[in-house]
Amino acid sequence: MISEIKFRKATQDDSDKIWKILQQAIERRRLDNSQQWQNGYPNPETVHSDIEKQIGYVLEENDNVVVYSAVILNDEPAYENIEGKWLSDGDFNVVNRLAVSDEVAGKGYATEIFRRIEDLSRQNGIFSVKVDTNFDNAAMLHILKKLDYTYCGEVYLAGGERKAFEKLL
């Protein structure tokens, strides 16, 4: 069967599934000995808020939500104080809280949602995507390298140092 993959804004009907996917990702980070997401964030309130603000997006395969990410225009205060230098100073989208369900982990779905977010950005006249991740999140660091994101320096979020990346589209 050929699967159909859709990229769309998340709705409140998706929130339980999104939270389940985030919990799976939180556990994968823990098993990878990563410190990322081990302090009660993200949580169900984060998901609800993302959906309410219309910044939550999902990839669904055959009507089953399998990936979640927040996409935020120009709004990450921590990015103003980078130890390093961004590639650009214009409008940008931030990719936050990207999580892949266990059922599709390791099968290229994180790469696919990044491609869809990049397409969405271009369609809206945004030619920069910024993202940060923990120094010990090997899976995300691998994806960012594969997709030609440029390491720009360090930012500080939630009490921790994070590696910051940018891709010009």
Automatic annotation (TrEMBL):
Coiled-coil region: none
Pfam families reported for this sequence: Acetyltransf_1
A GO MF term: acyltransferase activity, transferring groups other than amino-acyl groups
Superkingdom field: Bacteria
This protein's UniProt keywords: Transferase
PROSITE patterns: GNAT
Domain N-acetyltransferase: 5-169
Descriptive protein name: Acetyltransferase family protein
